[in-house]
């Protein structure tokens, strides 16, 4: 399988200047809004600590909580299905739909169904699948995966959306008024809500105590998907479990504040039992999660509540765009989850980080994201998954850094080199750091030189 | 082995030990001042409207005056008649032409400006989403402080469906520009109207 070349994909993103600058600004704005909300709650840090503890407790007793959840769901008159992997998940969903003669499925955004690549699976079998979240719908119509887990089309500008809608759903060509575009999607999606035989949602949280699950949206599209058709299917990753309803207070207070900088999503919906005359199916999906749970250094990533705060704050993500990661999950959280799916394919991703630790600082459930990124780098180096140039440079750097004499010689030489070498010798393919940035001017004197002059011999 | 048993066995084998204990969740109640005023401010921030009917005004007539163009007004609350009766047996899709839906909120949340609705309040859940506009009656005495209070409410254990509605349907998926009425209602209006005396429920 081909290794994802994040740097190459990112360079294409950066080349589209207007897009790149808007992307950077928009996501940083979300980060600032998040800060304002967080600072408005005196107990914010306490909430983060509680959220982390609840998640760690639940993951350590996950088998018990899953069984409790299953029992409650059955008592509530809903159905539970278990899927070991993506294919089994897709097959279960297809079987539920086909045995009931359902031909059209309206769905709200779910990263899990993206992870399972469910849409093409169902479409090949004759099921019409309609994404109903505006951003996700734009991405579906443009035949692209979401580039962000909360704002799927954040890498597109209004002109791009206008082109997609003109090409696919009959919008006026050239009309890029955002109100018009959103209204066009509303008008063209509503008939699907009314005629679909089945609706699908994901879940942000599943509560063991009651067998219920929670879906957070701003558009209300999950509630339309779940409350208009008779049949509701919910796909839920097994790590979404929390023990009790009371714990939702902690997570709901953190989620939208971290994601979008709003105190809560417009709709926070709790599904416990099927509607009168309706049918509710829950598909619990493993797809690598139980294995990740056993990874000593990486199981904390299962605490993730998919708020996207780490992506919005990450300088690499903001300047490279979610699609450049070539994976379902992008940004810092993607960088630590993706290699668990395929270490070779995603071996470049842990290097798409400056290790500044900002992701860890904003994470509402306190995942040690940047430390995990660093650990993945070590594993990838040990398993020989580094590309040749990076490996050679690291080998040489390792030798130099380990030997004081060599290091001093190299530092003086580097200063001289930056001053005196022709540009092509510095800004070449061996030095990716020189690609989108100028190498800083070297100081006249090294620190060691200054120290010896002012403080005498060490 | 069934998939269920295989997943549970793998989880059991891999889950980290020992399990840290489950923390107690405080209520973090530091609210001071009027819950109604905080509710109103939070609701406005989320794009909702808060309209106080004039003293003694009949809510039915008042709502009609707020939506003079509305053809179909459909109420899940017996306090408002509207133009079309809502019977629990109707198909959700039958509500596609409703201009204004009306509901009595079980309670409100000062922290976020949310109202809490269940299938008991909505009768047909889709009313809150297929209608073009939603109007909610809220007793000012039915407002709790923050979300920790909300999630101590026992009704979560009996409601089939419960939703915290905070403002109208919204999206900012194109260039971060805020649009109301993305998929669900285009507006949410909350009227502070006390419950009829025979219908008071404690929160």
Set down the secondary structure blueprint.
The complex is a heterodimer of chains A (458) and B (203).
Chain A: H1 6-15, H2 17-39, H3 44-60, H4 62-75, E1 79-83, H5 86-99, E2 104-107, H6 111-115, H7 118-124, E3 128-131, H8 134-141, H9 158-168, H10 178-195, E4 198-201, E5 205-207, E6 212-217, H11 221-227, E7 231-237, E8 241-242, H12 248-259, E9 267-271, E10 279-285, H13 289-293, H14 309-313, H15 315-320, H16 331-341, H17 358-362, H18 369-382, H19 388-402, H20 404-420, H21 423-426, H22 447-455
Parallel strand pairs in A: 1-10, 2-3, 2-4, 4-7, 5-8, 7-10
Antiparallel strand pairs in A: 5-6, 6-9
Chain B: H1 3-14, H2 35-45, E1 49-50, H3 59-66, E2 73-75, E3 84-85, E4 100-104, E5 107-109, E6 114-118, H4 119-122, H5 127-130, E7 133-138, E8 143-144, H6 147-150, E9 161-165, E10 170-171, E11 179-180, E12 187-192
Parallel strand pairs in B: 1-12, 2-3, 2-4, 4-7, 5-8, 7-12
Antiparallel strand pairs in B: 5-6, 6-9, 10-11
Descriptive key words:
heterodimer; A: 458 residues; Rossmann fold; six-stranded parallel β-sheet; 10 strands; B: alpha/beta; 6 helices; 21% strand
Question: What can you tell me about this protein's structure?
Answer:
The complex is a heterodimer of chains A (458) and B (203). With 458 residues, chain A is an alpha/beta fold. Chain A has helices spanning 6-15, 17-39, 44-60, 62-75, 86-99, 111-115, 118-124, 134-141, 158-168, 178-195, 221-227, 248-259, 289-293, 309-313, 315-320, 331-341, 358-362, 369-382, 388-402, 404-420, 423-426, 447-455, and strands spanning 79-83, 104-107, 128-131, 198-201, 205-207, 212-217, 231-237, 241-242, 267-271, 279-285. Among the domains of chain A are: 41-287, NagB/RpiA/CoA transferase-like (Rossmann fold), CATH 3.40.50.10420; 388-455, no CATH class. Chain A has 22 helices and 10 strands. Chain A has a 6-stranded parallel sheet, sandwiched between helices. In chain A, β5 (205-207) and β6 (212-217) form a beta hairpin. In chain A, 49% of the residues are buried. Helix content of chain B is 21%, strand content 21%. Chain B is built from 6 helices and 12 strands. Chain B has helices at residues 3-14, 35-45, 59-66, 119-122, 127-130, 147-150, and strands at residues 49-50, 73-75, 84-85, 100-104, 107-109, 114-118, 133-138, 143-144, 161-165, 170-171, 179-180, 187-192. Chain B has a 6-stranded parallel sheet with strand order 1-12-7-4-2-3. A 4-stranded mixed sheet of chain B has the order 8-5-6-9. In chain B, β5 and β6 form a beta hairpin. Chain B is globular and about 65 Å long. The chains are: A alpha/beta (458), B alpha/beta (203). Chains A and B meet through α2, α3, α4, α8 and α10 of A and α1, α5, α6, β9 and β10 of B. β9 of chain A pairs antiparallel with β9 of chain B, so a sheet runs across the interface.
